[in-house]
Specification:
The complex is a heterodimer of chains A (about 250) and B (about 230). In chain A, about 35% of the residues lie in helices and about 10% in strands. The radius of gyration of chain A is 20 Å and the shape is elongated. Chain A has about 250 residues and is α+β, with helices and mostly antiparallel strands. Chain B has one domain (about 15-95, about 115-225). Chain B is built from eight helices and no strands. The chains are: A alpha+beta (about 250), B mainly alpha (about 230).
């Protein structure tokens, strides 16, 4: 099959970018979107041109490295699917695809389709952890966890930090990501002691990084390849408000 | 992800209102108070269908307690200021700062029309409130005005077609604004539940619709000659 690809090309963080049109013929419909770019890059290298830079690692949809906008939708048109798992058979022969990097002040473009998601690392460093003594492993069932809480924590922990929520949000808010981490840790007894501290610090860091505000539109939930639900944002707000009341 | 130097905030660095979550909570609480006023105001206004004596007596009753009247007015004014100030701060962040370079292609997947147009419905409703106060409270709206005769003022005011049209448009926008705001505020204040949130969403749309119907029935009745 043949695809017309309009790809954002930008030499480095300092230079201005632009959309460049590529005709990618003879593509196997069973290839993933990233494999299509691999093939395009091989052809570009043969011609002596600069290949398209994009982030990738596991290509199994679990690492959170890949992702860009495909025709204005984060990770493309297939719901609950990362860019690496999106196959070309979901498109028609001759389709025109616009590939753009995530856009947010907090996610500066490094090159082509790659952005710097260090802001997410810093939100995690602000409170996305539990403080435990290392040493011998504790007994697995020493602390009881309610089944319902374990399930909800697990659902929130499915977040791979890909950044699609920020990219899809009209306000470039980091609410779904931050909420997922706060929910995943705060629902478990090990995360409970630092629950308030965590909400205050992670929300503060989200704001310091320059992400926008959540206006409850739900675009993040629709774009999330891991099915993280808006519920986590409510829990984050709840923890933040409670923490604000209790802080000294 | 990159391994650049990690600059981590401490909880002391941003106070409650400095954060987006804090501002949204302020918008939610002020919005609830303003919604309460909208509801009470509509209930009061619907007495127009019981005739001039009833409506004018109600208006007189409200003015008979100046302390309560001014207490309510100042509370509402404070809520309006908090609601608008927070929304302007958030709108500037969201629309101008958070995404300096936009997308060449962008497709909205789920956000409803009412939710996406809050930035437009809000300011138009503000213009409406200002004109509404000029017309029926201060008597400087350009329509016939008699001090103390609310019924006559309403009938005379709504006989002017452009005035009625502006009221009807504003009420439709208010209904849309509430249909998003009334459900959004629950999440802003920390409540979301798989069983209740869908119900809240439907209720918000129903209440928004009821407010539109109740309020626009008055200019329509005047224009149709049912209320004279």
């Amino acid at each position: 099959m043949k695809l017309i690809l309009h790809i954002w090309r930008q030499k480095n963080a300092a230079s201005a970018g632009r959309m460049v049109r590529y005709e990618a013929g003879d593509m196997n419909p069973d290839m993933s979107m990233l494999e299509a770019l691999d093939v395009l890059n091989e052809r570009l290298i043969e011609k002596g041109e600069e290949p398209v830079a994009f982030e990738h690692d596991c290509r199994e949809g679990i690492c959170g490295s890949c992702g860009f906008m495909i025709n204005g939708v984060a990770h493309g048109p297939q719901r609950l699917t990362t860019t690496c798992q999106l196959t070309l058979r979901h498109f028609k022969d001759g389709d025109e695809l616009y590939l753009e990097p995530w856009r947010a002040k907090a996610f500066p473009v490094l090159k082509d389709l790659m952005v710097d998601r260090g802001a997410f690392d810093r939100i995690i460093a602000a409170g996305g952890y539990i403080s435990v003594s290392t040493g011998s492993a504790p007994d697995g069932n020493a602390i009881p966890v309610a089944k319902d809480n374990a399930d909800r924590a697990m659902d929130a922990a499915a977040c791979i930090g890909c950044g699609a929520c920020v990219a899809a949000c009209p306000n470039a808010a980091a609410a779904l990501f931050t909420g997922a981490k706060i929910t995943h840790l705060g629902l478990l007894p090990q995360g409970e002691p630092e629950r308030h501290e965590r909400a205050l610090n992670m929300v503060a860091q989200w704001n310091i990084e320059g992400f926008g505000a959540c206006t409850n539109l739900g675009e993040c939930e629709a774009a999330c390849p891991k099915g993280i639900r808006l519920e986590v944002i409510a829990r984050m707000n709840h923890d933040y408000l409670a923490a604000s009341c209790h802080r000294r | 992800m990159s391994t650049t130097a990690v600059a981590v905030a401490t909880r002391k660095s941003l106070r409650f209102y400095d954060t987006t979550v804090g501002k949204k909570a302020v918008m939610a609480v002020s919005g609830v108070v303003l919604f309460g006023f909208v509801l009470a105001h509509m209930a009061g206004n619907l007495q127009i269908y019981e005739g001039p004596e009833k409506l004018n007596a109600y208006a007189k009753l409200l003015r008979a307690m100046p302390a309560a009247l001014w207490g309510a007015r100042l509370t509402l004014l404070l809520m309006v200021v908090l609601h608008i100030w927070s929304s302007v701060k958030l709108a500037l962040l969201n629309k101008l700062e958070a995404r300096p370079t936009g997308y060449v292609r962008h497709k909205s997947q789920t956000a409803g029309y009412a939710a996406r147009t809050m930035y437009w419905s809000g300011p138009i409703i503000l213009c409406f409130v200002i004109y509404h106060l000029m017309e029926f409270t201060l008597g400087v709206g350009g329509t016939p005005y008699q001090e103390g005769n609310v019924y006559a003022n309403v009938v005379a005011g709504f006989k002017v077609l452009p005035v009625s049209a502006f009221y009807i448009l504003s009420m439709i926008l208010l209904g849309m604004h509430l249909s998003h705001g009334l459900s959004s505020l629950f999440r802003s204040l920390g409540f979301d539940h798989p069983r209740y949130t869908p119900v809240i969403k439907h209720l918000a749309i129903a209440i928004g619709t009821l407010i539109v119907i109740g309020n626009i029935s008055i200019p329509i009745s005047v224009l149709a000659g049912w209320v004279k």
